[in-house]
Amino acid sequence: LVDAQGRIDTARPLIEGEASVALPGLRARWSGLLAQAQGQGDLDLALADGARLLTWLRALADAPVLGEIVRPALAPLADWQAEGQAQARLRWQGGLGALGFPGPQARSAAPRLDLALDTERLQLERTGESPMKLALGSTHLSVQGPPDALAVALRTRAESSGWRADLDTAGELGFIGLPLNARRGQLALSRLKLSATPAGAANGNGTSGTRENGAAVTWALSSQSPLRARWQPRGDAIDAELDGASLQVQPRRAGGAALAPVNLSWEQLVWRAGALQTRGRIDGLPLAWADALTISDTRPTGALAEAGLGGDLVFDGRWDLSLPAQASEPPRLSAQLQRRAGDLAIQTLGAFDDPRASANRVQAGVKTAELELRTEGRRVNARLRWDSERFGTASADLASELSPPDAAHGAWHWPDTAPLSGRVRASLPEVGVWSVLAPPGWRVRGALNAEVSVAGTRAAPQLTGVLEAKDLALRSLVDGIVFRGGELRATLAGERIVIERFRLEGRGGAERGGVLQASGSAEWRRVQRDGATVREPLIELEVSADKLRASSRPDRRVTVSGQVRARLEGAALQLRGTLRADEALIVLPDEAAPSLGDDVVVRGTEYPIDRRGGVPVVPDVRITVDLGPSFELRGQGLQTRLEGQLEVRTNPPDPEPRIVGEVRTVRGTYRAYGQQLAIETGVLRFNGAYDNPALEIDAVRPNTTQRVGVQITGTAQAPRVRLFSDPEMPDSEKLAWLVLGRPASGAGAEAAVLQQAALALLAGSDGGPLDGGLAQALGLDTLSFTGTSSSSTGDGTNSSAAVMLGKQIADNLYLSYERSLAGTLSTVSIFYDVSRRVTVRARAGSENAIDLIFTLRYD
To answer: Which listed residue, 325, 572, 693, 834, has the most CB atoms within 10 A of its CB?
Structure first.
């Protein structure tokens, strides 16, 4: 809907009148006088619904007659979406000749403008090949004055490209010359305050905000002096110049204190004839900024904190940059960064010999920290200097070359074929702070010296030099691994490294802890694969151990000797060798040890491995393992020595390990059902999968008149368990002799005990109800109800119920106590097995006697 009235004079010329327009989502009203030398007027715009207005404009392209005219102009709107509201008001006083309004050539004064724009919510989004999204929050724009001296003030909240920003600025904007031309002007900002925060997930009201998790960092920028800029046309281009000024940048973490601010100042910033020249400095750059720059909603901890680094180290820097207008001319750059004050701290897990895992922070004692980058024509030079009290010294002087633009690169670049040259020196003292480079729970100590020359190209650097390490020590508190007295000497020759000497001593030195030695080489080779030249690794390593104490944990003590040879050629890994356990003690964990439930998931901070482009290693393993003369296994009721040899194999391309060999028990015992069973035969035969050996195990109860026991055959995944006896007897009798050491009396409580033992045997446990419960809590082997016999005045005997407590003191000594439940009778009995057939029994209490029992079986 359009409503307009007024007059138009083409002779003077001028336009006077008023008009109003009502469109879907938009209302506009204008009134005033438009002329070259004089005039005034008002223009009011009210956007009520941006989405409705945009939909209506798109529909015009399909209108009859009019659609053909406006369709080209409306085509760019196809990729745009709009939402929100806005209000704008423009007032002017004076002629519009300075703005290009037609009329006589007489000079006219510029009009005075008064513009106000307000919005609480306005969102614009473009889809397609170049997506863009801009969301304005509370915004107020004010522009007042003549075009050559406009007072501008802007306060807004905007969100775009993953950032939310708040801007508050004011200054003066002027367009120079008549008629006025936007390509020539100047800007002077008296106030500039900008804060930017990474945007988070969408809030419930549809707007985007920062997650309140304390991770986001707000960057605040403010001007320390007025900012003055000028621009003017140069043909079709524009020259611009920014006067010297300074800005202050300060990060602040949500809910935390602000970090130290940084001052950024420049002497000049000139863009002239397509060339850029800038020179300035940065003061007070803290190392903590490295954390602030890497913090995000998905990464609440910065890169330095993750590496255990921190401190109050502060740097100063300067730069001088010139980018020529001609692409064929190389850029010129000189940049330096050097320590001003402060120190670097590294968090460690305590001293190397400290058994506690307390965290300590070690100060580096930094004296010098400098980095310089300079270009001279095509040549680029880099220089590094580092000197500290505890972290040693390091220096590097490197040089390379840039290449001019070509068909693949539109600017100067650093190609893969760029030559390299230089030298690197490092001397790192014997400190334990290098543990931050080791896996969690490990501590590393040692001194390192290196002197390396660099040559070759960026894609294929050639390193030549020597690496030496002394007093190396490794320790893992969790795994019980302690190595000391280490030495390393390696030489670098191009793409090849040769380990001439590597030596570590076990805990207690070479005499008590043994020695580990290694030598070998690693290199990159160029080979032909499918008609193309590729680089593949070739690694050859030979490791030998001589009575090396590999683990010193109380429940895992292992001393090993042997040799292993490893060769990795491309993706083919070959392992050959023999290992022998000189001494070993493995204590199995208690079955009752606490553990997490199946429904508990522990999430770590590890990042998933990117396997794209990787080649899986194909192992070919032949390792012989000799358990040696002193390999003990304890725990979960088992105590035995193991003997035997195993060969670990993998056959390409199947990476699953296979084991061939036999493991035997020697003088082993197994505690089950309250008894100490002797393992007469214990053999595990491996001939395939490592987790499914064939079983041949016979365990008997010693020092009984009957030979009874448990026999296990089959495989680990499908075992077969049965009771046996010599001579043969029913299974119920076998179970009674195995559990009680005597025939069953037939009492109900005793039968229940045997039934529990049978169920436990079939279930594969160690007889939980019999060994566990109240009897185990009291430290007893037997707790049952029996029938007792005592003298009476009647027919000679009287049977009554009694409770019996029993304890196996030794293999051939048993103590029991019976207490009648119907009277005050009690008896203490001691059984001593002299042999399988002869037993001495002593009784005291209601009946005092010493018996010699001789057992002779006829069945």
So the answer is: 693
Radius of gyration of the chain (CA): 45
How many beta carbons lie within 10 A of that of residue 718, not counting itself?
A: 8
SS (H, E, C) 140-193: EEEEEECCCCEEEEEEEEEEECCEEEEEEEEEEEEECCCCCCCCCEEEEEEEEE
Report whether pLDDT(301) > 90.
Answer: no
Question: CB of 798 within 8 A of CB of 790?
Answer: yes
Q: What is the pLDDT of residues 17-66, one digit of tens each?
A: 999 999 999 999 999 988 888 889 999 999 999 999 999 998 888 888 88
- DSSP 3-state of 56: helix
Query: pLDDT category, 201, cuts 50, 70, 90?
Result: very low
Q: Taking a C-beta distance cutoff of 8 angstroms, is the pair 660, 635 a contact?
A: no
Give residue 660's pLDDT.
94
Identify the bridge partners of residue 815 per DSSP, sorted by sequence position: 807, 830
The answer to whether residues 244 and 206 touch, using CB atoms and an 8 Å cutoff, is: no
Maximum Cα–Cα distance across the chain: 153
Spatial separation of the C-alpha atoms in residues 433 and 310, rounded to whole Å: 13
pTM confidence score: 0.68
CB 521 within 8 A of CB 499: yes
- For residue range 701-734, list pLDDT tens digits in order: 887 777 888 888 998 888 888 888 888 888 778 8
pLDDT in tens, 336-372: 999 999 998 877 655 555 555 455 678 889 999 999 9
pLDDT in tens, 126-166: 988 888 899 999 999 999 999 889 999 999 999 987 888 99
Domain residue ranges of the chain, discontinuous segments joined by +: 633-771, 779-859
How far is 625 from 590, CA to CA, in rounded Å?
Answer: 27
Find how far residue 581's CA is from the centre of its chain: 36
Element holding 401 (H helix, E strand): strand 393-401
**Rounded CA separation 743/706 (Å):** 10
Cross-strand pairs, 9: 14
Rounded CA-CA distance 634/3 in Å is 100
Residues with Cβ within 8 Å of residue 649, at least 6 apart in sequence:
621, 622, 657, 658, 659, 660
Instruction: Choose among 211, 209, 109: nearest CA to 159.
Output: 209
Q: Which residues contact 824 (CB under 8 A, 6 or more apart)?
A: none
Contact 396, 451 (CB under 8 A): no
DSSP string, 480-494: TEEEEEEEEEEEEEE
